[in-house]
Amino acid sequence: MAAREIDPRAPEPPYRQIAADLIGEIERGELAPGRPLPSEKELTERYGVARNTARSALAVLRDRGLIFTVTGRGSYVAEPASTDD
Hints:
Order of helices and strands: HHHEE
Number of helices: 3
Distance between the termini: 34 Å
Shape: globular
């Protein structure tokens, strides 16, 4: 999984750029449901950002229902929401 470069001068904040990158990986199936996401530490190394930036990116995905977090274990890709209601 190659990380895209984070552009600190872009109008989109770095945490949103990381979130968009991770969303793309989920949509392409590179991060499958039930699989763990990279840890905050791994994200800081991968994107060259501070831990709070990585944490904010994960919060965006959690708020959209794309991931869930298990305290002390990490964040995982959520099952896609069912559309057959």
